[in-house]
Amino acid sequence: MERPAIELADVFRRHGDAYLRDHAGRLGRGERRVMSAIAACRTAALGGHVEQCDDCGARRIAYNSCRNRHCPKCQGAARAAWLDARKAELLPAPYFHLVFTLPPAAAEVAFQNKRLLYAALMRAAAEATMTLAANPKRLGARIGLLAVLHTWGQTLTHHPHVHCVVPGGGVSLDGERWIVCKPGFFLPVKALARLFRRLFLAALETAFDKGELCLFGELAPLCEPRAFARRIVALRKMDWIVYAKPPFGGPEQVLAYLARYTHRAAIANSRLVAASDDDVAFSYKDYRRQGRRRIMRLSPDEFIRRFLLHVLPDGFHRIRHYGLLARGDREERLALCRRLAAAAAENPVKPKVGACEDLSTIALGAAFPCPDCGGLMRRVGVVPPARPRPFKCDTS
């Protein structure tokens, strides 16, 4: 696969030291680790393999990837393996795409409490969907869903929202029947938004009452109970946004969607246009102008700051399964769904996801096309990792 002209790693290698020097007191270990991993990705710092062509004898070194989930070059292999496992979980039902978004007044609190409130956001979106679906006046069924957390907008601003992929059918409350939603309609979004708002705010109030929230900087006044209560009242009066996209056409479309949304970094290398000492330029969709493609230029400092807004806490799961798709006895529940639907699961076609090879797991002797003559190029040796060059942090 051809290397983009500009990569995120190039920005970090060029401006990372200066950024760490200027923001030394405000960066956590997680952000530093992400910057170092992306800068070292596919360089001598991580080692690699020596490849040689059987025909022309050409040799080259292929360096290993960092496999950091925030690196735009390292999602392909993980995505392909994850998608392959998801094929067996598709149900014979139409699939819907729901998006749950936090308003800015809640998002800024969530930013200072990522682990706690991102989880609450995902849980509130899932519970709202499953609760409304179980209502006999709605679908009247137990359902499952897959939720994916995104925290960015097109211009890398903080914009936490959850994408949910939901089968439009479920098991009746008595467990005896398979119920399918109306064609082209799953659940009313206004009712979903109200329930989502109530559930998230309940979780937010509980966290405050238990002293679990960390509020500092401009949000420090919210530590006072009456100020926090006023924020809750204001949030309760707002219209929260839940967006429902048209249903997918079939299992192939579901998998193609998942390939785009699950293992995604805040910005793809393909969106980077230019990088200089003065600015970083990247493309984005301007949804205020019918999604027209535009170019934004930011100073390197501001670009790196915006990217690091989206570093997740260590161990945080940004892809979660709920209801019938939750872990545990998931296989038994899916088998029940298929029996009740009286239809065998379709064999979905695996989408083309443009997977990047994970060089560190490919054995010696593996063959690849030679870029020079088209012959077979085999792995013939290993390049040990060089000592990584950490970003400098001069606080003097």
SSE map:
Blueprint lengths: L7 H15 L6 H12 L7 E6 L5 E5 L12 H11 L8 E7 L2 H8 L2 H21 L6 E2 L1 E9 L5 E10 L1 E4 L5 E3 L8 H21 L15 H13 L3 E5 L5 H11 L10 E4 L4 E7 L5 E7 L1 H9 L10 E5 L6 H12 L25 E3 L6 E8 L13
Antiparallel strand pairs: 1-2, 1-15, 3-6, 3-9, 4-7, 5-6, 5-13, 7-8, 10-11, 11-12, 14-15
Helix pairs in contact: 1-2, 5-6, 6-7
Write up this protein.
Residues 343-361 have low confidence and may be disordered. With 396 residues, this protein is of the alpha+beta class. The protein folds into 2 domains: 1-74 and 296-303 and 356-396, no CATH class; 85-266 and 309-341, Replication Protein E1, Chain: A (3-Layer(aba) Sandwich). The chain is globular. Helix 1 (8-22) runs antiparallel to helix 2 (29-40) and helix 6 (189-209) runs antiparallel to helix 7. 34% of the residues lie in helices and 21% in strands. It contains 10 helices and 15 strands. It has a 5-stranded antiparallel beta sheet with strand order 9-3-6-5-13, with helices on both faces.
What features would you highlight for this structure?
Replication Protein E1, Chain: A, single chain, four-stranded antiparallel sheet, 396 residues, alpha+beta, 34% helix, 10 helices, five-stranded antiparallel sheet, 2 domains, globular
Short description:
This protein has helices spanning 8-22, 29-40, 76-86, 104-111, 114-134, 189-209, 225-237, 251-261, 300-308, 330-341, and strands spanning 48-53, 59-63, 95-101, 141-142, 144-152, 158-167, 169-172, 178-180, 241-245, 272-275, 280-286, 292-298, 319-323, 367-369, 376-383. The chain has 396 residues and is an alpha+beta fold.
